[in-house]
Each structure stands twice: as C-alpha cells, then as structure tokens.
Amino acid sequence: MMAIDSVGRADDPAGSSSVSAAIEVSHLVKTYKTTRAVDDISFRVPRGSITGLLGGNGAGKTTTIAMIMGLVLPTAGRIRVLGCAMPEQRADVLGRINFESPYVDMPSRLTVRQNLTVFGQLYAVPDLRGRIAELAADFDLTDFLDRASGKLSAGQKTRVALAKALINQPELLLLDEPTASLDPDTADWIRSHLESYRKRRGASILLASHNMLEVERLCDRVVIMKRGRIEDDDTPSAIMARYHRSTLEEVFLDVARGRARDAES
Q1: Which residues contact residue 137 at a Cβ distance below 8 angstroms, ignoring those fewer than 6 apart?
Q2: Contacts (Cβ under 8 Å, ≥6 apart) of 149
Q3: Pairing, β 35-46 against β 50-54
Q4: What contacts 208, CB < 8 A, 6 or more positions away?
Q5: Contact indicator for 239, 224 with CB cutoff of 8 Å
Q6: Could you tell me if 136 and 162 are in contact, meaning their C-beta atoms sit under 8 angstroms apart?
Q7: How is residue 235 annotated by DSSP?
C-alpha cells in the first residue's frame, strides 16, 4: 500500500536508508517457547519524528521496545538504532537514548536528587548539579528534590521519571504511557514539554500509549500492533480516513474487535 510505503517502512526500498532512521526494525521476531510475541514486523522511526506504537495488552509493544533497547534478544530479524546494530553495538548507542515508564519504579529509599544523581553519573552528564537544577525547574520538582522517591504521589513519580529520561538530553526517547496518573493540566504541560524538546533538540520519540488524544496530538505516524503483528502503519489522519473514523480511539476499537478497514488498492 503506497500510503504506508510513503512514510518509510523498513521494507520500502525507497525509504530504507538507516542514515535517516532513528530506529529501523526489519522482519523482527521474538518467540517464547511456542508463542510468537512479535511476529515478523518491520517499521522505521525517522529522525526528528514522534511515532506512536499502539496496541492492546499482549500486542507485543513492550517486547518490541525491549528488543530495540537491547534488553531482549530477538529470535530473528534486524534492529538498528541511531545507525547502530542492536544489540551488537549497544555500548555505542545507549548513552544517546533513554527510556521512561511510570510503571518502572526508581529506588524508593533514595531521594529524588539522589536518584537523578545516580542516573546522571551513569550517563556521565557534564555539570550534573546544574542539569538537575534545570530539570527540577522544568518539571516543578524543587519542593520535593530531597524527599524519598517512595513517598511521592503517582503524578510526582511520573514527573521525576520524565526528568530522569531527559537527564542525558537523549537523541532518542522511548516512552511508555508518559502521562499516566497525571491530572489533565499536568499531562497537557508534559505533552507541550515533549513537543518543545523534540523541536529544540531534533530528538526522535517512540511513544507507546493508550491515550489516543495524546497520540493524535503528538505523533507524526502511528504503528498499530495486534497479536505480535503490524495491523497498520501510517499518519494518524490517513489511518482514520482508511477506517472511516474521526478519532484514533475509534480506529483502536475497530482493530481490537476485528472490524475491517478499506480494501487496499
């Protein structure tokens, strides 16, 4: 389908140059015993873009992200991140990327400042004290920088996790439900901050989210997964048009419930 090819899937000869891809996944497979958690998927995240990775529980999103980060070895297929083969060249690229999920807790007994210091040292961040002060101001963390992370509210933990994810000013940011547990005002502020960071730094973002309004607002492209395979890969507007839907939430429900889209030309 030309609409998909035009945004540069990994199996598109006209758009497969890894030079312009922050992430390039080609025929990726992950099998656990007899179960294919990821089943021969290919897609690209262009540099400087925000790409949404959507799918219900068990669709294969988390496994895909783990393989992109080099944490899980693929059964078959190829992954390149910022031009480096993963996981073989993981050491060359990990300092240039970062990951955030509100479902992954930081050490609860350490204060926010101590946690950010540890992660900043792992990334060898220059002027770490200044960087932490900058992030504290950006994410409104100053009042609880010296509070134990385990004593924070869910929303505060999410803001700290995002600050941690940006501490090394990554070229590639992998986000899993970045605005979970945040009130609408704070969530909107976080989205604005991510948009600003992408524009200011030219960063690339892969965003896994169940918030369809968030995806519509932030994402240039959307990759929809179901049962380990890619169901669709295109711009949000093109996907909504193909399903004759006015929102991505309606598309998401169609995919989850097996409703057909337009026949491909």
Answers
A1: none
A2: 105, 106, 107, 108, 109, 110, 111, 112, 115, 157, 160
A3: unpaired
A4: 52, 53, 54, 61, 62, 65, 175, 176, 177
A5: yes
A6: no
A7: -
Q: How far is residue 52's CA from residue 10's CA, in Å, rounded to a whole number?
A: 16
Spatial contact of 204 and 177, defined as CB atoms under 8 Å apart: no
Chain centre to alpha carbon of residue 146: 29
Residue 4 carries which side chain, given as an amino acid letter?
A: I
Strand partners, 264: none
Tokens matching residue 4 = 């998909």
Residue 158 to residue 155: CA distance in whole angstroms? 5
**Residue 217 to residue 207: CA distance in whole angstroms:** 12
Q: Which of 100, 72, 97 is nearest to 87 (CA)?
A: 72
Mean pLDDT of 19-24: 86
Helix (H, G, I), strand (E, B) or coil at 176: strand
Q: What is the identity of the amino acid at 248?
A: L
Cα separation, 169 vs 55, in Å, equals 28
**Whether the Cβ atoms of residue 90 and residue 97 lie closer than 8 Å to each other:** no
Helix axes 128-138, 154-165, angle to 10 degrees: 140
**pLDDT confidence bin for 159, thresholds 50/70/90:** confident
Q: What is the DSSP string of 133-168?
A: HHHHHHTT-GGGTTSBGGGS-HHHHHHHHHHHHTTT
Q: pLDDT tens for residues 228-261?
A: 999 999 999 999 999 999 999 999 999 988 876 7
